Amino acid sequence: MKDCCKDGCKHTTEKLVVKKWINYIVYTILILIVGGALTLQLFS
User: Fold this and answer.
1) HSE (side-chain half, CA atoms, 13 Å) at 22
2) Cα–chain-centroid distance for residue 20?
3) How far is CA 27 from the centre of its chain?
4) d(C-alpha 34, C-alpha 27), whole Å
5) pLDDT tens figures, 3-31
6) 23, 26, 21, 18 alpha-carbon torsion, rounded to 10°
């Protein structure tokens, strides 16, 4: 029973880490798009 609980905790922490990195990637892409649009508006 304890081994099963430990494995479940590992899977949840791995999912949280993956979800965190996906969020970082999505926010970085959004910031790049918004920054690029602002740069184009200012210098074109």
Assistant:
1) 6
2) 4
3) 7
4) 10
5) 556 555 666 677 888 999 999 999 999 99
6) 70
